[in-house]
Write a structure and sequence with these properties.
Two copies of one chain form a homodimer. With 221 residues, chain A is α+β, with helices and mostly antiparallel strands. Helix content of chain A is 17%, strand content 30%. Chain A has three helices and eleven strands. In chain A, the strands form two sheets. A nine-stranded mixed sheet of chain A has the order 4-3-5-6-11-7-8-9-10, with no helix packed on it. A two-stranded antiparallel sheet of chain A has the order 1-2. At the A-B interface, helix 1, strand 2 and strand 11 of A face helix 1, strand 2, strand 4 and strand 11 of B. Strand 11 (207-219) of chain A pairs antiparallel with strand 11 (207-219) of chain B. Chain A binds a DNA duplex (30 and 30 nucleotides) through helix 3.
DNA sequence: AGTATACAGGAACATCTGTTTTATGTCAAA
DNA sequence: TTTGACATAAAACAGATGTTCCTGTATACT
């Protein structure tokens, strides 16, 4: 299980330096300049942590471009850079007994739907435009550690990689479920987040991937 | 000196392109990228005009640095907006076996701690300054529908009202727990979020309210 | 004409800079 | 203990990028 994107001291240092550097120079630092400042002797380590920051949603990078990075998040102690509010479409509800009804063209339904604010860290490396949110109805997903009223953030996709938390529609059971996806030979194993529940083995024909679960938000009273 | 009409059409084009490029990408264009956009086949010509723009005071350059230029003047089409994001201090971790360690003065620890962005909806009616966040360590709070890696948003308070989700320190058990708070005569009843678990009855002396749980955030891979 | 200046183009060059590969140490889970 | 994920390093590599030198054109001035 991957922990919430909490930054190491080194990554925080890098982020602070990059932000200050951009503000002072008007262009981002190179990998080696970051390494010098943060006392990192190896460019690959800087590169490694830079990619971590991308995953965490703090920066974006352009491949093979010198100084090709931009700070998208806000760093403590720094004045905010240009930051568009991250908004995700709340397109509907999800319950066990119903399939996830996704409009083929999400953008088409924008004006009649709600939007919610989501921190960049909860979107991972994905863009807000390809992500949507569902409100969970009922307690049928307790085995996924998700309860009534939770907001699930998903990215629409029909395939999944091992370890992904996915929203799957089980045709035979007429049930929507959120579980971790693993391919086991010809079968698919779905593991619940709560270890107190048993994994489920299904044939691919019975399991339709609806999306990848990126995050969950829950607000108490 | 800052007279737009003094510049050749080519230089104006370059200036417009560079400004737009920085706004879109977060970093300046290379000499060759400028050349492609402005239909200049030779890098030396771009370099020549770039130096002209430096003389005219529109930009600054750093020698021998990739994309080492910054736009210093305000060119038509620039905007600056500063909207303070909602930031909450991530002051530490929470695990079952340890008390929640809260600094008496949260603000005092700002510089050494992490900050996370939180959507306003997860803060309820409370202000970001009186709220803090904890990273959950371990799976000891499964009965509260909270798992390893989750981020819990809390408001610091020593009392609670019926129905509040609270973080409580059970002295006798040396355990931190997140449960719903109810006063039952002289006793306190703590109800887990997961109905599969049993409520807990404790005497007030054994139950120390540490804060009110406002929300939970969880990020998968 | 002759010269100076501003501007433009091409190509070679040096090095700046991101990427990849391989190896090492740490730490927690099995 | 063994395993594997994660973080860290060092070095070699390939590509991106600024610099420089040389040449050519057009215009204005003496």
């Amino acid at each position: 299980m991957k922990e919430f994107h909490r930054l190491s001291a080194r990554q925080q240092h890098m982020l602070r330096f990059m932000t200050a550097f951009v503000r002072e120079n008007g262009y981002p630092p190179s990998i080696r300049e970051i390494g010098d400042e943060c006392l990192i002797g190896s460019t690959s380590v800087v590169n490694y942590n830079l990619n971590k920051l991308v995953e965490a949603g703090y920066i974006q990078r352009s491949d093979r471009v010198s100084r090709g990075l931009r700070i998208v998040g806000d760093i403590p102690g720094m004045q905010a850079e240009t930051k568009p509010p991250l908004q995700v479409a709340l397109v509907g509800r999800i319950a066990a007994g119903e399939p996830i009804s996704l409009p083929d063209d999400i953008a088409h339904h924008i004006d009649e739907d709600d939007y919610i604010n989501v921190p960049p860290a909860l979107l991972g490396k994905y863009d807000a435009s390809e992500v949507f949110a569902l409100a969970v109805r009922g307690d049928s997903m307790i085995d996924a550690m998700i309860q009534n009223g939770d907001i699930v953030i998903l990215r629409r996709q029909n395939t999944a990689e091992n370890g992904d938390m996915v929203a799957a529609w089980l045709k035979e059971d007429s049930e929507t479920t959120l579980k971790r996806f693993y391919r086991r030979g010809d079968m698919i194993e779905l593991q619940p987040a709560n270890p107190a529940y048993q994994p489920l083995q299904v044939v691919p024909e019975n399991c339709e991937i609806k999306g990848k679960v990126l995050s969950v938000m829950r607000a108490y009273a």
